[in-house]
Amino acid sequence: MNRYPASILFLTGILLSSGPLHAQYAIGGGEVEGLYQRHCAVCHGENLDNGLGGSLLTTERWTNAIDEEYTDIIRHGLPDLGMQAFGDILSEEEIRALVIYIREEWLLAQKKETRRKAAPRGGVFRSEKHDFRVETIWERGGVLWSIEFMEPEKALVTHFDGQLFILDTASGEAEEIAGLPEVWRRGQGGLMEAKPHPDYRRNGWIYLAYNAASRERGGSTVGMTKIVRGRIEEGRWTDQETVYEAPANTHLGTGRHFGTRIVFHDGFLFFAIGDRGRKAMAQELDRPNGKIHRIWPDGRVPKDNPFANEEEALGSIWSYGHRNPQGMVLHPATGGLWATEHGPRGGDELNLIRRGANYGWPEVTYGMNYNGTPITAHTRKPGMVDPVVHWTPSLAVCGMDVVTGDAFPGWRGDLLVTGLAAQELRRLALEDAKVVREEVLIKERGRVRDIACAPDGTLYILSMTTGNKVGRVQRLRPAG
Ligand code: HEC
Predict the structure, then answer these.
(1) How far is 227 from 243, CA to CA, in rounded Å?
(2) C-beta of 42 in contact with ligand 1 (< 6 A)
(3) Are 440 and 397 a contacting pair, CB within 8 Å?
(4) What is the pTM (predicted TM-score) of this model?
(5) Which of 100, 280, 318, 384 could disulfide-pair with 294, CB 3.0 to 4.6 Å?
(6) Where are the domains positioned within the chain?
(7) H and E: helices and strands count for the chain
(8) 476 CA to centre of ligand 1 in angstroms
(9) Is the shortest distance between the CB of 106 and ligand 1 below 6 Å?
């Protein structure tokens, strides 16, 4: 796998930033590379960029139409031009994996340019609509997971290991809250979201979503994403009530894909649970994993939920077929509920969440397995909702927020999306339910896990230092 300098750089970046937290994809490698070298390299070159068949990396912009066109060409060949059909030799899944692979390699080739554009000059990051500076205001060893504002200059910040802080964003000082519930720190599970109730000033409720261990089964601990609410009094967590706990027989021991973010909307509380690494369960309505749920903020299940009256189904389910949604936000102008979904290798998604809808995982996906083996040949099927946007290679997409306030008027109403493996902050301009423009604002300055827009419109991101040892809160401020 030492073909491009660019891919070496990129791989090194991924290896440096890998940890037990996230499944990492060795982009460009795995079984699919062997498949390519065996069947295609003779005409398109070892590096996909030369030979009798020509370079496969010259496309200017990659769209779904290209996925389809390439699938077709590989399946049926281009007999007039001298490429044979592979439809009899390769399975549909293998052909799909090859298309994803070509797309990955294409993006690696594009990356240099993106990096050059996003690099700051004299400390100033330049972008299409705003130039800005990034300043670190607070640091803490380990992983910071979520940031949410409770007051204009006070933000709740969670530490993955189970600590909650109130950060004063003006002074850069943080107070740790004592007496939090016990968190089961395992793999990708820990303390995730902390979110104030929309009426927090009146009722004082703060919601926590975390991985909770529940009981021993066959000698091993199991657990599931759990939600509690409580109040903070004089630096202590008090008045705790359980808001959501999945049925005990659905708890699992895996350390993968817990979700989650919390969104309040229309008087309800929405949250996600990832598939927990058990793909097929995302389609099973008697399982809480692989779903987005809707409950009342006190934990009751709304009677008008889509599956509330189905005997076998869990009444709290709002949508299903999700892999691992780690970003969710309500768009204040449209009322749309947006969720990002961490894909496998390729196939990260941005979805608009609708009542009762099936988002397809794992029956359809734009990605393949981390080791380069295919998951499915299908990217879409009737009755399954297509993502609004999908990203291949994966950004390892995570938290997001909508820009409001006055600090960045040119970005108002846009979605800002974070990426872990891609180490990105990305701006998505929306028109209704469509993304009409994507721009990388920050690139390769540490893994970015969450973003919050403060009431005054200033932006705060959670990122990691290189080497992934220290979590930081950083502020984006308009330059000049
Ligand atoms: C015997 C030589 C040969 C082999 C083997 C071969 N190709 Fe091709 N391929 C070609 C030729 C020739 C073209 C047409 C180039 C042109 O447009 O002039 C082509 C075109 C393509 C295109 C369309 C490119 C574009 O930009 O429109 C794709 C995609 C492609 N090949 C993929 C593959 C894959 C994947 C494999 C392996 C499974 C493969 N090819 C194996 C010769 C080959």
Answers:
(1) 5
(2) yes
(3) no
(4) 0.82
(5) 318
(6) 5-118, 132-342+394-478
(7) 6, 24
(8) 45
(9) no
Any ligand 1 atom below 6 A from CB of 103:
no
Percent of the chain whose predicted confidence (pLDDT) is above 90: 79
Report how far ligand 1's centroid is from the alpha carbon of 343 (Å).
28
Q: Determine the topology of domain 5-118 in CATH.
A: Cytochrome Bc1 Complex; Chain D, domain 2 (1.10.760)
How far is residue 405's CA from residue 230's CA, in Å, rounded to a whole number? 29
Supply the CATH classification number for the domain 132-342+394-478. Answer: 2.120.10.30
Q: What is the pLDDT of residues 350-362, one digit of tens each?
A: 999 999 999 999 9
pLDDT tens for 321-342 read 999 999 999 999 999 999 999 9
Atom 10 of ligand 1 has which residue's CA nearest to it?
A: 53
Residues annotated as catalytic (active site), given as ranges: 257
Among left, alpha and beta (phi > 0; psi -120 to 50; other), residue 273 is beta
- Summarize pLDDT for 99-156 with one digit per residue, the tens: 999 999 998 888 877 777 788 888 999 999 999 999 999 999 999 999 999 999 999 9
Nearest residue by C-alpha to atom 13 in ligand 1? 53
Rounded to whole angstroms, the Cα distance separating 365 from 327 reads: 18
Task: Say if ligand 1 is within 6 A of residue 98 CB.
Answer: yes
Type of residue at 471 = G
Side-chain-facing half-sphere of 93: CA atoms under 13 Å: 10
